[in-house]
Design brief:
Blueprint: H1 2-20, H2 25-33, H3 37-47, H4 49-57, H5 64-85, H6 88-97, H7 105-124, H8 133-152, H9 156-174, H10 181-189, H11 191-197, H12 199-209, H13 217-237, H14 241-263
């Protein structure tokens, strides 16, 4: 019996020593939060080494500055991805129906020019692609839609001429030897009213027809979400009131298009040529 008591006492003493042993909390936390390289590298590339260490390794979830920055970077990446496909349903709708009913040619041309200037300005300044990448994809998609509007209105000469004109514009805007930096900056400054003006013809066309015609619901909703998210990313990453105001106004006008989509959901009009 005494041997059993001795064994129990020894076991209890050993257990107490194990429990009472100091645990290196910081080292343990760092080991738990240390991600493998395939996961760590993309995250560091997105939010930066400082915020990665703060949020992931140190797990300081109360660091509001890094949280806002990370959310902004995530939204920026999402906007670029969304911008790469946002008008694909619109293109598919046009081709599938062989119709451009209800689509404003002026609207897509103005939008294509605004996106083209935005892309060229940021590309020439070497800005991170995540801050402007959607403008590149939107430029290509708007050019294609405007050419489709001409094509389905049987204006083949204008379709070919429009393609040549777009290529020449792209070349001039991206070439420093043709357009100087101050000219490029001036063109970028006018993209705000230009991009806003691109929405007015489509809003007016919808109002007159009491229908959104072949306008893609997916494109309208994603455009509204994208411009609204850009308001947040601009407020977080940039100190540019002019750019903030432009994104805010663009979000409002895209919101008007969203309202029109639901207002005229069940209404149809007879086919008519684009403006």
């Amino acid at each position: 019996m005494s041997r059993v008591l001795v064994v129990l006492l020894l076991a209890w003493s050993t257990l107490q020593s194990i429990v009472a042993a100091p645990v290196p909390d910081n080292e343990l936390i760092q080991q738990k939060m240390r991600l493998p390289a395939p996961l760590r590298k993309p995250i560091v590339a997105l939010i930066g080494d400082k915020c990665y260490k703060t949020l992931v390794e140190d797990f300081e979830i109360t660091n509001w500055a890094c949280i806002k920055y990370s959310i902004s970077k995530g939204l920026g990446l999402g906007i670029v991805v969304g911008g790469s496909i946002v008008k694909i349903p619109q293109i598919i709708t046009i081709v599938a129906n062989s119709s451009v009913r209800g689509l404003s040619l002026a609207s897509f041309v103005l939008e294509a020019l605004a996106c083209c200037i935005t892309f060229a300005y940021n590309w020439r300044h070497g800005n991170p692609f995540s801050t402007y990448g959607e403008s590149f994809f939107l430029t290509l998609q708007n050019i294609l839609i405007s050419l489709l509007i001409l094509f389905y209105n049987r204006r083949l000469g204008a379709t070919f001429g429009g393609l040549i004109a777009y290529l020449l514009i792209l070349h001039c805007l991206t070439s420093p030897t043709i357009l100087s930096s101050w000219v490029m900056a001036s063109l970028y400054a006018i993209t705000i009213p230009l991009s806003l003006a691109s929405k007015i013809p489509q809003i007016y066309t919808n109002f007159v027809n009491k229908s959104t015609g072949q306008l893609s619901v997916f494109a309208v909703l994603n455009y509204f979400a994208g411009t609204t998210a850009r308001v947040f990313t601009t407020m977080t990453e940039l100190d540019d009131p002019l750019m903030l105001m432009g994104n805010l106004l663009a979000s409002i006008l895209n919101g008007v298009l969203v309202i029109q989509v639901f207002m005229y959901w069940e209404k149809r009009v007879e086919p008519q040529k684009a403006d």
